[in-house]
Amino acid sequence: MTTPPMTDAADAAASAPHLADSHDLIRVHGARENNLKDVSVEIPKRRLTVFTGVSGSGKSSLVFDTVAAESQRLINETYSAFVQGFMPTLARPDVDVLDGLTTAIIVDQQRMGADPRSTVGTATDANAMLRILFSRLGEPHIGSPKAYSFNVASISGAGAVTVQRAGQTVKERREFSITGGMCPRCEGRGSVTDIDLTQLFDESKSLSEGALTVPGYKAGGWNHRLYTESGLYDPDTPIRAFTKRQLQDFLYREPTRMKIAGINMTYEGLVPRIQKSMLAKDREAMQPHIREFVDRAVTFTTCPDCAGTRLSEAARSSKIGGISIADACAMQISDLAEWVRGLAEPSVGPLLTALGDTLDSFVEIGLGYLSLDRPAGTLSGGEAQRVKMIRHLGSSLTDVTYVFDEPTIGLHPHDIRRMNDLLLRLRDKGNTVLVVEHKPEAIAIADHVVDLGPGAGTAGGTVCFEGTVEQLRASGTLTGRHLDDRARLKETVRKPAGALEIRGASTHNLRDVDVDIPLGVLTVVTGVAGSGKSSLVHGSIPAGENVVSVDQSPIRGSRRSNPATYTGLLEPIRKAFAKANGVKPALFSANSEGACPNCNGAGVVYTDLAMMAGVATTCEECEGKRFDASVLEYHLGGRDISEVLAMSVTEAGEFFGAGEARTPAAHRILTHMADVGLGYLTLGQPLTTLSGGERQRLKLATHMSDKGGIYVLDEPTTGLHLADVEQLLGLLDRLVEAGKSVIVIEHHQAVMAHADWIIDLGPGAGHDGGRVVFEGTPADLVAARSTLTGEHLADYVGT
């Protein structure tokens, strides 16, 4: 029997693409998050798409706050209501249509938690695998993996338990013990604190005379009354005359419930009280005056019992081939990977393979110079982002959307090539890769480019261009025009007015470095990631009276914080309003007496819907202005306080620069904000809505009026568009011409080419770096081509 021939219609159906293969686009229509103006784009799947545009143009709003946020929200909705109750609630982005989304994995620049117990090893699961390895092979054997963890304390106990057995209630004695690896002296922190008692009180005075010098312990306050009215000692006796018992009660007494001024309160010695209220907090989160007190009163020294390893003596005594887990964590990761590969133990074969692959990923991504015991809080934004990438490199997942936020931050041009290869590898496995980026080397590898703009803030939020990199070059957009920009070497460089001598610098991987940093000029310190740049500059030039240091630590602030409060601009504005109207300055703060009583000065009213996304509605009383109606009746120069906070920096600069509203103190701060390229920001815009580059420049603006003669800047081009780098170079020149010495840690070739003097560290990273491999002018570095930096700078300037 012969098979009948297929019809033409059947042939056509067989050759047509399957309907499932037609979903090859992520469609976004009508996106209005933050400053986006009804943006509609179609992003190709399984391709590498780069989003470009000036800082503040809306890139992150489109990629992170719209596409990635909706993907995560939809995934969370697949869990039961019970599970969702334990998860962060996400509101639906303000967008009309989002189609074709896939699971989004976000690899952002958020710094890793600054918890003192968090290290590179604990953040990447490498420590967990090492602990299992030592619990199986370590000699002598001391217990389970917990016995090697510096986050687990050793505890034991015994007592009676009641159990039901054969219908009868029986009491039995039970004992339990957990062997942990935590050093009992420092509790797994690696350092111990020593409090200088002379900074807490003046022993020649009595409490009634104001002996306490701790911030927040002023006479009359509850913190002060707790001690003066406790009845444990005479508040009129000088502290130096206290008996031994009274001094013990005053400084170290355990928490005790007692009646003080007729109120039930818990009394606690001054030292433990300060440790709980101040030292338990992250230093960067403290208010400036508290931080200053802590820096003055507290010294952190390496724990003498564990020598900073955080581990108990038992955990340090268990070894594999003479190496303890503390030794393994202290090794440079590239060396540790070799040691793991040298362990031929079939009984733990799968574990060694998995651990080896994780450590190899560190090396591959350019972080082989780190060690597993490096505190997570000390990583830069770029390093933290790459550490987060490690768990995704060997992943078998495909058809996933990976979202990266400037993955080249903190990378030397030599390392950017390696990062590009990793992004392409993720794409080639069948994933959609979305990258927010400014560097031309990273834009060049894109399959598809979306350029947002044309400006920043309210002048941005629209799509200026979609297409290939070649089409972008010919497009005439701001990014297209600047894509091939190359800074030229300066024909003449400034002469130094002296030198800052650094001798025998040995912080981290530095090898007794001796170097003279010229003063009165623009000096750029460069080198591959991990070569010792930050160790040299921040370790040898501490921020002090004459040094203004603007590092990469993140700006902290709630949605109540804005550029006006952060820069101190609100203070002179409030005083000017108060003086003009004859009332108190506190009325003109939405966080104080002037707040709208309905929304407490937030401008919105939140409705909590348990595991559903909360709803924020504009306050009906103040219509989102945040102030009480009576406050808005007071005017300065014809404007009320809410209208002033709605102004842009440029507009406010003109308003406070002349006329009835002339306020020199406010005008000076606004001029600094405009100088760093933030003229488009509105004064009352919440800090939480600012991009990473905007926050860095806002921090720089706050330090512009500082009195220091030496400015130390850590990668000021972070988050800057190619067009903005030119403006930054002009700002650096103005600082130098004003008599300042500017020292910049930087990878951007335009800043290197513009420098008067370059100090290049290397030649490699970690123990392969830590030496000065070049000192001289950019022209000499290009001519010599003797270092990796020299080669890349020569290629950049086209010599």
TrEMBL record:
<keyword id="KW-0228">DNA excision</keyword>
<dbReference type="InterPro" id="IPR003439">
    <property type="entry name" value="ABC_transporter-like_ATP-bd"/>
</dbReference>
<keyword id="KW-0067">ATP-binding</keyword>
<dbReference type="Pfam" id="PF00005">
    <property type="entry name" value="ABC_tran"/>
</dbReference>
<keyword id="KW-0227">DNA damage</keyword>
<keyword id="KW-0267">Excision nuclease</keyword>
<feature type="domain" description="ABC transporter">
    <location>
        <begin position="487"/>
        <end position="788"/>
    </location>
</feature>
<keyword id="KW-0963">Cytoplasm</keyword>
<keyword id="KW-0547">Nucleotide-binding</keyword>
<comment type="similarity">
    <text>Belongs to the ABC transporter superfamily. UvrA family.</text>
</comment>
<dbReference type="InterPro" id="IPR027417">
    <property type="entry name" value="P-loop_NTPase"/>
</dbReference>
<keyword id="KW-0677">Repeat</keyword>
<keyword id="KW-0234">DNA repair</keyword>
<protein>
    <recommendedName>
        <fullName>UvrABC system protein A</fullName>
    </recommendedName>
</protein>
<keyword id="KW-0238">DNA-binding</keyword>
